[in-house]
Amino acid sequence: MGRGGPREIVQLTGDRDAISSVTFLADGKTLASGGGGMVWLWDVSYLVKPLSFLCAQVGRSFTQEEWERYVPEGPAYRKIC
């Protein structure tokens, strides 16, 4: 899809054949998926403030080149740490 359309933001691992429903919990930081008598909870809290998460993971601001590689359709480059 083109810019502005739906795009995958994260790929979760699990038994995809068994998942029949997905929902966010009220906290907005937990994704629940279920099916086949099982429920999986996924911590997606890093999606609430993705730039803060990136800064914490890298321990520094991205370079311009890194930003263009990892955040191509996001906001314009800026130091985040």
TrEMBL record:
Coiled coil, from the record = none
InterPro entries documented for this protein:
Quino_amine_DH_bsu, WD40/YVTN_repeat-like_dom_sf, WD40_rpt
SUPFAM superfamilies according to UniProt: YVTN repeat-like/Quinoprotein amine dehydrogenase
| The protein, known as | WD40 repeat domain-containing protein
